[in-house]
Amino acid sequence: MKNETMKFPEGFLWGGATAANQLEGGFGEGGKGLSTADVLPGGKQRLTLLKSIGFDFEIDKDKYTYPNHEAIDFYHRYKEDIALFAEMGFKCYRMSIAWTRIFPDGNEQEPNEAGLAFYDSVFDELHKYGIEPVVTISHYEMPIHLVKEYGGWKSREVVGFFERYARVLFNRYKNKVKYWLTFNEINISFEMPIQGFGFAIQNEEDKYQTTFQAFHHQFVASSLAVKACHEIIPDAKIGCMILYLPTYPYDCNPENVLFAKQESRFFNNFCADVQVRGEYPAFIQRYFKEHNIEIEVQPGDLELLKQYPVDFISFSYYMSRTEKKEKSPEEIMQGNGLGGVRNPFLKTSEWGWEIDPIGLRITLNEFYDRYQKPLFVVENGLGANDKVEEDGSIHDDYRIDYIRDHIKQMREAIEDGVELMGYTPWGCIDLVSASTGEMSKRYGFIYVDKHDDGGGTFDRKKKKSFFWYKDVIATNGAEL
């Protein structure tokens, strides 16, 4: 249908999103070092390991498979894939750079030229089609050497290594990239520190102290990256990236309303407050006191955070969360990954994620009301089992319905007064799932013939959603 009221602002950045460790492959090629993502096995045991105590960051091929090593081979097929993105009409492409392609161990003095040259080629290919790169500096991976020798983000020294890495990127790509993000879903480390911090919690006793010290180091690193970006590329924009789950009370019991608000503020706003407002929020001080947390803050840290906040807020939105203060183990909503209880008004995906398009409008309004900075939806999508028909076609109407419903709510939020920069649905081409290491959990508009058992031809096929999204972009959201 066509509806002129559904058109988006001129210059709206339509595109798609991926991460280096989930699609590149090229394991060990071009001088690439070993990253934290490289040691995460495939299969549903990955999610258990991500939340486990004492993960050892070792590869055990006798016990596990490692799908990220090969992924979908974007490393060798990026020209083919970017041509498909261009055919859909992408205005931008959100991607990440693998830290270990640039600094294989993380602490070298000089970067790896082969890694830098690879991304030069990717950016050149994007610009050939007029596609603007949106680049995440750190997306769920860091050099294993920094984990084993320094303890990951527990160590203050890693801040300096990250700043060096970021400055190399800004200097090398200052004429090719004008949109940057610092840490992907920085707040995920509350739940899965292995992905965000590069360390596993060793015991419950020091969980709070090590978590918030690592967050402080990342906040300082983020501000140093903002500072460097503004110095080296004055016309560039650099943002944070938050995993946002609007949190509903289970009912109108004031106990549950208060609990839901506290949970939302803690998970959704803590990291954003520091990176956007440039200071620790007042509410966290009570939490620090109650959990005996005393983070080490070096002279000048707080001034740095205040002086160099991010320019915009990017975030992922997949689901909402419903909370009650007292809940039995049977009530906990397992599929959503971050707890809560079942919302009786919502349907779920095949992987148990609740589907809540209106929650995206709520998220956009909550973010904008709190911060009054431009917003960018850089992840949103439906993971599903896609069936290839005998004629090779893939009829993913369920994905079209999901994305259409979320786009409608973005438009409503814009009408509400929200300043929205763009939309990049997650996994615009099928890739390895971050949480489970599966290929069968497909998000893409483009099907990749790669399977959980490692088999497949890597051939690319256009799904029905490919042609639908092409029309959405061509009409700037008027035709859904």
From TrEMBL:
Q: Which UniProt keywords apply?
A: Glycosidase, Hydrolase
Q: Which PANTHER family match?
A: 6-PHOSPHO-BETA-GLUCOSIDASE ASCB-RELATED, GLYCOSYL HYDROLASE
Protein name per its UniProtKB record: Amygdalase
Q: Where is the active site?
A: 379 (nucleophile)
A single GO BP term for this record reads: carbohydrate catabolic process
Asked whether the UniProt record includes Hydrolase among its keywords, one would answer yes
GO molecular function, a single term: beta-glucosidase activity
The gene name reads ascB
An annotated GO cellular component of this protein is: cytosol
A Pfam match is: Glyco_hydro_1
Q: Which family does it belong to?
A: Belongs to the glycosyl hydrolase 1 family.
Annotated signal sequence range:
none
